[in-house]
Amino acid sequence: MKLKLSILIYSLASGGAERVVSILLNELKDDYDITLFLMNDTIFYTLHDNINIIYLENSNPYESGLKKLLKLPYLAWQYKKLNKSNISLSFMNRPNYINILAKIMGMKSKVMISERAMPSLQHAKGLQGSINRFLISALYPLADIITANSYGNTQDLHDNFSCKEVKTINNPIDIEKIAHLSQEAIVFDKNKFTFITIGRLDTGKNHRLLIEAIKDIDAKLYIIGDGELEQELEHYILENKLQKKVILLGKVENPYKYLTQADCFVFSSNYEGFPNVLLEALACDLPIISTDCQSGPREILAPKSDLDLQCSDMQKGEYGVLVEVDNVKQMTRAMKLIQSDENLRYNFKSNAKKRAQMFEVDKIVKEWKIVIEEEIASE
User: Fold this and answer.
1) How many CB atoms within 10 Å of residue 138?
2) In angstroms, what CA-CA distances link 372 with 2, 4, 6, 67, 140?
3) How many helices and strands, by DSSP H and E, does the chain display?
4) pTM
5) What is the tens place of the pLDDT at every residue in 210-250?
6) Is the Cβ–Cβ distance between 277 and 254 less than 8 Å?
7) 63-91 pLDDT per residue, tens
């Protein structure tokens, strides 16, 4: 008889944590009796037909932070009543809070939580940030097992939130699927050197940095993603007469067909967890320029360096170039370097796929299974 595994996440919208959950659901379905618990009915990723889905609620993603906070005990009680699994695995802050509160209320499942971002940076500001920092400090240490998707996030939980034992499991990527999808034909202007990026259009991803950097470069910038800053960025592009240089593609179901046609992937985040898009860019044989934000990019692009450092000047890693966070001059300099130095581009492209293979689905899913089985064996 299969062990029962529940996975709790807010939705399966087009985000990094959601993509990881979709991969785990499809890869673990033969090993466990899986139930997916959602709090919103958005499903962007394709799931196998035999995945059982239960909705705790169908919430409005734009509801107030106060309402989200007040609903936590009710949703935890609902989850306790509905969840009958051996292991309850949750992703991201609110589902993690609900998972642990359900345990406090008497849920019998082993509680396993997964942190996907660096909490001390993600929740650094305002009243809402203070509440989240308090909840993480108070609740996370009560989980049976805590995972984080990067070394940086693991250290943050350990150093700043009293989480004594955290297991690092990096994000997986499906290289075979990426290779297949990247073959889809598109019309792409190859008369200009092409930079490309992927990410939600919000302040954390800092696309404005890339738009400012491209002003002084004879190249094009394609931005894949949507979000609350879309109109603001469109206005900025028009205001600066950059509409022929910067193209907002919106949310794209198959970004890989664009990645394989580009010359360089650029990434401008102020903070991260473990950015899937860098792994996907590597799988598409792209040279990469990224801000050296906490956490993720340094671990991926310069793994032999001191992972506790952040650069104050442009740095060449083994698999890409790192620049200081929110530094337009450094980003511009790095983009010009990659554009002009064919040998450097070739070296990064030659090593990209080898690095991507270190995060292949089979390897990462095996790590998840080991952690799950160890937790069950400890009963």
Assistant:
1) 13
2) 13, 11, 12, 33, 18
3) 15, 14
4) 0.88
5) 999 999 999 999 999 999 999 999 999 999 999 999 999 99
6) no
7) 998 999 999 999 999 999 999 999 999 99
